[in-house]
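Entry 14: structure prediction run for Aminoglycoside phosphotransferase domain-containing protein. Input pasted below.
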Amino acid sequence: MSRDLAPPFSASLAADVLRKSCAVTNMETMGSRLMRLGENALYHLPAASAVVRIARTMDYWDDAVNEVRVARWLADQRFPAAEVVDVEQPIQVSGHPVTFWRYIDGRDGNRDDIGTLGTVLRRLHQLPKPGTFTLPTEDILGRVEGRIAIADVPSLDKAFLLAQLRELRLGLDSLHFPLSPAPTHGDAHSENIMIREGMPLLIDFERFAWGQPEWDLAMTATEYETAGWWTAAEYGSFVSAYGFDVRSWSEGFPFLRRVHELKMTTWLMQNVGESAEIADEYAVRMRTIRDGIRSTWRPF
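Run finished. Output C-alpha cells:
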C-alpha cells in the first residue's frame, strides 16, 4: 500500500498492529498500554515485561534494523542502554516495522537529569566505530520531507516548510565542525534516558548514526534557546557535564538551531489531528520559525 493510500497512523491502527505482532511472537497482551504516540507507537506489555515499538511505515525498516544492531553493539560495549528481547527482529506486520525491547523498570529522564544527559553523551561520543556492522551516515534532515508530506496542515505551511528544508540542506554542506566524528544518538533529549536504581540508561536508537557530536548537543541547546525548557542553571549543568558548549560555535550553532526547530515542528505536525492541544502547539511553533515570534514551546 502506498503512503498516500495508507490509513493515518493513529492509536487505533497501532493497537491492531500490536495485537498481530504479539500473536506472531507469542507475547501476552493482557494489560497492554500505549506509552507514547509520536514517530512510533510504544506499548508496554506488563505480562511480558517488554516494550513494543511500531514504526509508521516500511520506509523506516532500515532504521529498525539499525536500532536492533546498535542495541546489541552497545551491550557488547557494556554501555548502559536499552536491550532487545531475544527474538528474531525486526518483523513486518501490516506494513509496519515492529521491534521488541526489555522493559526498563525505572523512571523517565526529567529536568533534574539534564546534567546526566551530558555525561551520557560524552561517554557515547567517545565510543569507537562498530566493527561488526556499518553505522549509517548521519542524515539530520532525513525524515522531515516525509513528515511534511503526510501532515494534515495547510498547503501554505507545507510550502514554507519545504522551502526551509531546501535552504537548510544546502547550508549543511558548508559547515566546518569543531569536534571529531563519533557515534551519534540523533534524538538526544532527556526523555531518551531512563533512570533505574540511580543509573541512566540510553534508549531509542532508530536515528543512531556516525556523524557529528554537535548535532546531539544542539538539541539541548535549542530546547534552551528556543523552546525555553531549561533554566540557565540547568543548561549550564549539561554543558559542564559534557565539557563543551555548542553555542560557542558561532558559525554553526545558529544554523543547527534552525534545523532542530524545523525537526521539532515537523515531528509534532504528524499528530496535529490527534488533539486541540497539539494543533495549538503546532501553531505556536510555526509562528516562531516563520514569523520570529518567540514564546515558550510546550513539550509533547
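Notes: Confidence is low (pLDDT under 50) at residues 1-5. Will compare against the previous run tomorrow.
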